[in-house]
Automatic annotation (TrEMBL):
Biological source species: Pedobacter panaciterrae
Record-given protein name: PQQ-dependent sugar dehydrogenase
PROSITE patterns: CYTC (PS51007), PKD (PS50093)
Lineage of source species: Bacteria, Pseudomonadati, Bacteroidota, Sphingobacteriia, Sphingobacteriales
Pfam families to which the protein is assigned, alphabetical: CBM_6, Cytochrom_C, GSDH, PKD_4
Signal peptide location: 1-25
Length: 895
């Protein structure tokens, strides 16, 4: 007995370990990201809001401005099937009209659509202040507006307003859920709860709507539509039918702007995103900072707004008349004493959000990032919801909730524990950034469909599109690259086509086929990966490469070729001065040459000098050569703000601001003109962006950007303020002349001079005009070690600011360096360690020795070398003769 009792715990432990191993071994693995493919279905949509997927892959979607459209994958076309006359404006206190959120908000098919052909529309009629849920009969083709049956009206205010909601879905019992916003102007509440109880301020009091048990706004409603166009109330809503001062349609209350509902098909639980207010900081006298939320309702409940936010963080009562604060609201017993309340005074206890996140990085949910926010929601994935789906997501995502954010553009996969409580989250396809995702759901084919509104409120964004994300669990399509060594030339045009860069994630042996077409007619076919093509007739051709794997999966890419017109050859020639580096106050003599096979040249005067664009600019910031090359006749000085534009693109700025048109906030041009001439503006605005605030441009609240560095924000502000400068077309410089580099940057390795010459030829009857240019960048002569082109036997510190020689013979390399006028080279040591003796060689590490450091500069750790005077460009090697020597920078000198 003793032996058996001793064995029992050992056996139990062994079984536990074995079972744990089995569970772990059977846990599905996360699929490779390259098994997912983004497929663009339609582009340049016009304020898309909500969509539904029909049989055959057709997509029905609503545009806020009133159009109901359908996309047909068979024709790849989008057709308008209805155009609703909708209210889209609100009126301010001053009587000014502005664009609002109302309009055509949602569309959904009846669960029995195949039989009854009913669809439901949620929209804002133009002639009455309601948001209306109506049923229509639609059997394909145009929508017959006379079939409308008005199901439910949500009475709303059209004064200073917002927050419409509008999401719809059906559950398995054919109950219809409809989300409604709190319909409250919140921009005068300093980012805290809008509970203004002063006479005449009802539009600014969310207690009239979200906190009102007798009002349909700020709710998720649940009704059961009946065949005659009416509805009944399902069991389990928040207030039983007949309860005084309540509306029985209410399933959840205390919502600010509930967005994109979804139901877990296995549990019946309701999930949604909740768009929160705009406050960046908490206040002892007012309450918590603002959060967006992702919520779950396992049953009906009160989700707290406008008294609580996030994980039930309470606001204080605030008297807007006296500007005095009262007590914190009680989570267990919220009381609505507002004079604008028509419902119960004592409300149900508040339910905490499942996920909540502020503008700043969240401590609880760090993967959500920081910046602007607008929670959208998304679907819960279950494999059993799909039958024979071609692109079915893998088992790894079983039971996970896929959520997105309109501003941040990510998709996150949320994992729950066995009780349906939050467990973890992770990025889905981290390299994918959506642009204003506003609705997301799985289609019958298993793909994840996403409707992207674009970045910017109340306008047709060119980036707005309908996409789907397909999963391929088996053989993957090849990823194709197609290039040509030249894309234009005189007749006969010989072109080497290349498939370099084409890959296959499965490692398959691929077959290549190039088809050369002209005007849609096939001209030549090649079965090799990198053929040489000869085109004898002038015109525009398309060379299309199709790559096929052994399983039949194929992919294609094309390159355009222009035969019969050669690209002009443009060259900036330096007759005096260095063509790699600039030195302060140095004179550079230049001469531009242009030769075109059809037009002639500058030299023979067949090309007039006036048709050649020449520009020289000094940029104290980084430059973007793509921007520099965009316009033949004008150098885009905003290239110097490439860093700022990249930061704006990454941040939430474009969601609220445009360059020259007003959005939710003022345009960049308006801001620049307002602060023109104000020498303190740069510092003030930098601080304002970091801290957040409101009041300068009305009631709109700008969120804090505390996660951005002062330098980053300052870069953006400099760019914004530049719009006050009158933009004029820069006159072209002469094709032959001299230029003095009279700008000396305040920091080493920062500034650059950009020399650019360009010419666009005249084209021919059969071949379009071609564009040639030459861009020479003169860099600062102080070269940091991390800006060298190659290194051998060199170790770098973490930020690559210091290079250390591992052995004798280690080297750093600069490629194609012009040595004209360079007489000395100084080596700057680091960390109290001398750079030591360094040899300067050309062409190879063992090539010709043109100099070596021998003396220390001014008694410092730096050493300096006299070099042989040379002209022309060379690959230059800086060879260390002493192990452990440390180097920070290399400085070229022309003295």
């Amino acid at each position: 007995m003793i032996k058996l009792s001793l064995l029992k715990p050992i056996t139990a432990l062994s079984l536990l370990l074995v079972s744990s191993y089995i569970v772990k071994a059977q846990s599905p693995e996360k699929p490779d990201d390259n098994r997912f493919t983004k497929v663009v279905l339609q582009q340049k949509l016009e304020e898309p809001m909500q969509f539904q997927i029909l049989d055959g892959g057709k997509v029905l979607y609503a545009e806020r401005k009133g159009k109901l459209k359908i996309y047909d994958p068979a024709t790849n076309k989008m057709d308008v099937i209805a155009d609703f006359a909708v209210s889209r404006e609100y009126v301010s206190k001053k009587g000014e009209r502005s664009e609002g959120e109302d309009g055509l908000q949602g569309v959904i098919l009846d669960p029995d659509y195949a039989k009854n052909k009913w669809i439901y529309i949620y929209y804002s009629p133009k002639d009455v202040s309601v948001n209306r849920l109506s049923r229509f009969t639609w059997a394909g083709g145009k929508l017959n507006m006379t079939t409308e049956k008005k199901v439910l009206d949500v009475v709303v205010q059209r004064e200073e307003c917002c927050h419409v909601g509008g999401g719809m879905l059906f559950d398995k019992d054919k109950n219809l859920y409809l989300s409604t916003g709190d319909n409250t102007f919140s921009r005068s509440s300093d980012g805290f709860t809008p509970i203004d109880e002063r006479p005449g301020e009802a539009p600014r009091d969310a207690q009239k709507s979200s906190g009102n048990t007798n009002d349909l706004r700020g709710k998720i409603l649940r009704i059961h539509p009946e065949p005659n166009g009416t509805y009944t109330i399902p069991e389990g809503n928040l207030f039983p039918k007949g309860t005084a001062n309540t509306r029985p349609e209410i399933y959840t209350m205390g919502n600010r702007n509930p967005w994109r509902l979804t139901i877990d098909s296995h549990t019946g639980w309701l999930y949604w995103g909740e768009v929160g207010p705009d406050g960046s900081n908490s206040s002892e006298s007012r309450g918590p900072r603002s959060y967006d939320e992702f919520n779950v309702a396992k049953k009906s409940g009160n989700y707290g707004w406008p008294y609580f936010i996030g994980n039930n963080q309470a606001y204080r009562y605030y008297d807007f008349a006296t500007k005095k604060s009262g007590e914190l609201y009680d989570v267990q017993k919220p009381i609505n004493n507002s004079p604008n309340n028509t419902g119960l005074k004592e409300l149900p206890p508040a339910v905490s959000a499942m996920i909540w996140y502020p503008y700043a990085a969240s401590e609880e949910f760090p993967v959500m990032g920081s910046g602007g926010r607008s929670a959208v929601g998304g679907p819960v994935f279950h494999k059993s919801d799909f039958a024979n789906a071609k692109y079915l997501f893998p088992a790894y995502y079983e039971g996970k909730w896929l959520i997105t954010d309109w501003v941040r553009g990510w998709i996150l996969a949320v994992t729950f524990d066995e009780n349906g409580m939050y467990k973890s989250m992770e990025r889905f396809l981290p390299e994918l950034t959506l642009r204003g995702p506003i609705d997301m759901k799985f289609g019958p084919d298993g793909s994840l469909y996403v409707l992207e509104y674009g970045n910017g409120y109340f306008k047709d964004n060119p980036e707005a599109e309908l996409i789907k994300i397909e999963f391929n669990g088996g053989n993957r399509k090849p990823q194709v690259q197609a290039t040509a060594n030249k894309t234009a030339g005189a007749l006969p045009l010989k072109v080497k086509l290349s498939s370099a860069g084409t890959t296959d994630s499965d490692g398959d042996v691929l077959k290549y086929e190039w088809k050369i077409t002209k005007g849609g007619m096939l001209k030549q076919t090649f079965k090799t990966a990198n053929p040489e093509v000869q085109l004898a007739t002038a015109g525009v051709y398309k060379a299309t490469l199709t790559v096929t794997d052994p399983h039949g999966a194929k992919n294609s890419k094309s390159v355009e070729l222009v035969a019969g017109n050669a690209t002009p050859v443009v060259k900036f020639n330096f007759t005096k001065g260095n063509s790699s580096f600039y030195f302060p106050a140095s004179i550079i003599n230049y001469a531009v040459s242009v030769t075109d096979k059809e037009d002639g040249s500058l030299a023979d005067k067949r090309i007039p000098a006036s048709q050649v664009s020449v520009a020289i600019n000094y940029l104290s910031e980084g430059y973007d050569l793509t921007v520099v090359a965009q316009n033949q006749n004008q150098f885009d000085v905003s290239a110097q703000y490439a860093k700022a534009k990249a930061l704006i693109k990454k941040s939430d700025c474009n969601a609220c601001h445009a360059v020259d048109t007003k959005s939710l906030g003022p345009s960049f041009t308006e801001v620049a003109l307002k602060y023109k001439g104000d020498k303190t503006a740069e510092g003030k605005l930098t601080k304002k962006v970091i801290d957040g605030g409101s009041g300068v441009w009305g009631d709109a609240m700008m969120p804090a950007h505390s996660s951005m560095s002062t330098n980053e924000v300052n870069s953006i502000i400099k760019y914004v303020l530049s719009f006050s400068e009158k933009k004029t077309t820069q006159k072209s410089l002469p094709v032959t002349g001299s230029y003095t580099t009279n700008v000396q940057p305040d920091q080493p390795n920062k500034g650059s001079f950009i020399f650019r010459a360009a010419y666009k030829d005249h084209g021919t009857k059969l071949a379009p005009a071609q564009f040639g240019e030459d861009i020479v960048v003169l860099r600062h002569p102080f070269v940091l070690v991390n800006n060298t082109d190659n290194a051998n036997e060199i170790s770098f510190n973490d930020n690559k600011s210091v290079a250390t020689a591992k052995s004798k013979g280690a080297y750093l390399q600069l490629n194609k360096v012009d040595l004209t006028d360079i007489k000395k080279i100084e080596f700057i040591g680091a960390d109290n360690v001398s750079a030591g003796k360094i040899e300067i060689r050309i062409d190879s590490p063992e090539g010709k020795l043109i100099g070596q450091s021998s003396s220390k500069e001014n008694g410092s750790l730096n050493t300096i070398a006299d070099i042989e005077v040379l002209k022309g460009k060379y690959n230059v090697y800086f060879v260390f003769t002493e192990p452990s020597a440390r180097l920070k920078a290399i400085s070229m000198k022309n003295l």
